[in-house]
Write a structure and sequence with these properties.
Structural class: mainly beta
Helix content: 10-25%
Shape: globular
Oligomer: single chain
Strand content: 35-45%
Number of strands: 30
Strand order of the largest sheet: 1-12-11-29-30-13
């Protein structure tokens, strides 16, 4: 009897749904634009290295080149959504981007020497009773240089669950201005273990291993509108059926590192304009915009009347929104259509202002299988479900009470 009671004591508490509220903030790109510093920022940094986030996951015949839109996806220049978690005993709070486009988890160390770390919360390992020093160095390549640090291990609390012995990176050097301007302290990757640079078990994999949730599933509901504090939710352990209407359309993964799926075509007003022979796409919460091959995106921008700028952005007259055509992604046996109000980013309430196109150009992938990135512009249009148990992604139409007209960044 005593043995049975002892065994019961160590049965982990399984939580049905773990809810992480997400806040939405101005992107680094917008902050630089408002300061009049965006042009100078691009002049100060190389434009041919920003695709390195995805480089190591593709065969040698892959080509990667930066085009007119010099957006560095892995610099989180357009990242908008972040949430809170705690590390250590007693807990130390941090804000992180929950990024399906990476697999590593890092926050600034108290020993970090960079300006960026001085502007953010830093992890003080010497204050944590549950801390274990790993000692393994790690390097993450960013457009402005390498982020460097050491791997450690500690308790991590996310919402109402605690992950024991979670490996994470303590950054001691963060390159460039991007992290200094960021509203978040670190990044928590939700990709597959094969994507990890530090070779640590990703956080969600540990959540599954420690039986902290009922299902090996997480989902994003990214909210748009003027309510900055209420940016939506990341839900761990299942699906919230109140957030969507109709059925879930499941799409199998074609690769298990990123959350990579197959797109049949991209259409404007029923006519295929891109991805004629099919293409691959990564569903990536770590970037805001929708990315596609340079030539195809330029044609798409011309179709919606978007005009390029010196900084690689494409702008449209906000007064023309009602006349812009919808853009449809054919995925599996279903069409996923974005209206102009959904793919155009409106940064001001003035109707005569210019609006930002939600599409950006970048050549990434093989010549036979060009790669697209379905970022937050796409993800905020649908309720997005990531199923590790069945290696698939699900999309559903948001419930009517959850939608608002414009996305503002």
């Amino acid at each position: 009897m005593k043995a049975l009671l002892a065994a019961l004591i160590y049965i982990p508490l399984i939580t049905a749904l773990v809810r992480i509220p997400l806040a939405r903030f101005n992107s680094i790109r917008r902050t630089l634009r408002e300061r009049g510093e965006l042009d100078q920022f691009w002049r100060d940094h190389l434009s041919d290295v920003f695709a390195q986030k995805y480089q190591h996951c593709f065969p040698s015949d892959i080509f990667l080149s930066a085009g007119s839109a010099r957006e560095r996806l892995y610099d989180y220049m357009n990242a908008q959504y972040y949430g809170e978690l705690s590390i250590g005993t007693p807990p130390q709070k941090f804000t992180v981007v929950f990024d399906t486009g990476s697999a590593d988890f890092w926050v600034p160390s108290a020993y970090c020497i960079s300006e960026a770390c001085g502007l953010h919360q830093k992890f003080k390992s010497f204050l944590s009773q549950s801390y274990a020093h790993g000692g393994q160095p790690f390097f993450l390549q960013y457009g402005t240089g390498k982020l460097m640090g050491v791997v450690a291990k500690d308790k991590v609390q996310i919402s109402n669950i605690t992950i024991d012995d979670q490996e994470f990176g303590e950054s001691v050097f963060e390159p460039g201005m991007t992290f200094a301007l960021a509203h978040f302290d670190g990044v928590l990757g939700l990709g597959y273990p094969s994507l990890s640079v530090t070779n640590a078990r990703p956080v969600f994999d540990n959540i599954i291993k420690q039986h902290l949730v009922e299902e090996p599933v997480f989902s994003f509901f990214l909210k748009r509108g003027d309510d900055i504090e209420n940016g939506g939710e990341l839900i761990l352990g299942g699906i919230d059926h109140s957030l969507f209407t109709g059925s879930i359309h499941w799409v199998p993964l074609t690769e298990k590192n990123y959350w990579q799926i197959h797109i049949n075509s991209v259409k404007i007003q029923g006519h295929i304009t891109s991805c004629h022979s099919g293409c691959e796409a990564i569903v990536d919460s770590g970037t805001s915009l929708i990315t596609g091959p340079i030539a195809q995106i330029i044609r798409l921008q011309e179709s919606i009347g978007a005009v390029p700028t010196r900084t690689g952005e494409f702008l449209v007259d906000c007064r023309r929104l009602s006349s812009l055509p919808p853009v449809t992604f054919s995925i599996g046996e279903r069409d996923f259509t974005l209206t102009a109000e959904q793919y155009i980013i409106k940064e001001s309430s003035r109707e005569d202002d210019l609006c930002l196109s939600g599409f950006q150009a970048m050549d990434l992938g093989s010549r036979s299988k060009p790669l697209w990135i379905l970022g937050d512009v796409f993800m905020s249009t649908f309720y997005c479900i990531f199923d590790r148990g069945n290696d698939r992604v699900g999309f559903a139409k948001p419930a009517a009470h959850t939608t608002k007209k414009f996305q503002r960044v």
